Amino acid sequence: MTPTELLKKLDFTKGNGLIPVITQDAKTKTVLMQAYANKEAVELTLKTKKATYWSRSRNEIWIKGETSGNTQKIISISTDCDCDSLLYLVEQTGPACHTGEYSCFYNQLL
After folding, report:
1. Which tens digits make up the pLDDT trace of 18-57?
2. pTM score above 0.70
3. Contacts made by residues 41-49, CB under 8 angstroms, sequence distance 24+
4. Domain ranges of the chain
5. DSSP letter string over the chain?
6. Of 1-10, 31-40, 70-79, where does mean pLDDT reach its minimum?
7. Domain at 3-92, CATH from 3.10.20.810, 2.60.40.1220, 1.20.1050.40, 1.10.10.10
């Protein structure tokens, strides 16, 4: 299936116009963060190769690193089997988490 065909198959209906995006460091495979994207954010990500999300708190498009400088250059994008979530493999510059941690997943429960 081509990327264009996959884009058309993405199912934004389950999340009220949003789909979850898991972002992972392409080199280390560390899971960096989880965010959401609408169709426009996905299209911008594909066009610019900059990880772009939908900020639910600000209700607007959010390009990772736009204000912090902690950018995410897209290496590859995959969809899950149901086409209702995405995996971004990125080249991370600086910390991914707003707390200053490299990954948002630093609180271990078990």
Report:
1. 999 999 999 999 999 999 999 999 999 999 999 999 999 9
2. yes
3. 42/7, 42/10, 42/86, 43/7, 45/74, 45/77, 45/88, 46/3, 46/7, 46/77, 49/73, 49/74
4. 3-92
5. --HHHHHHH---TTTTT-EEEEEEETTT--EEEEEEE-HHHHHHHHHH-B-EEEETTTTEEEETTTTTS--EEEEEEEE-TTSS-EEEEEEE-S-SSTTS-SSS------
6. 1-10
7. 3.10.20.810
CA distances from 50 to 39, 73, 92 (A): 15, 5, 10
Could you tell me the CA-to-CA distances from 94 to 9, 25, 57, 73 in Å, in that order?
33, 11, 23, 12
The pair of structure tokens assigned to 35 is 């965010």
d(CA 34, CA 106): 13
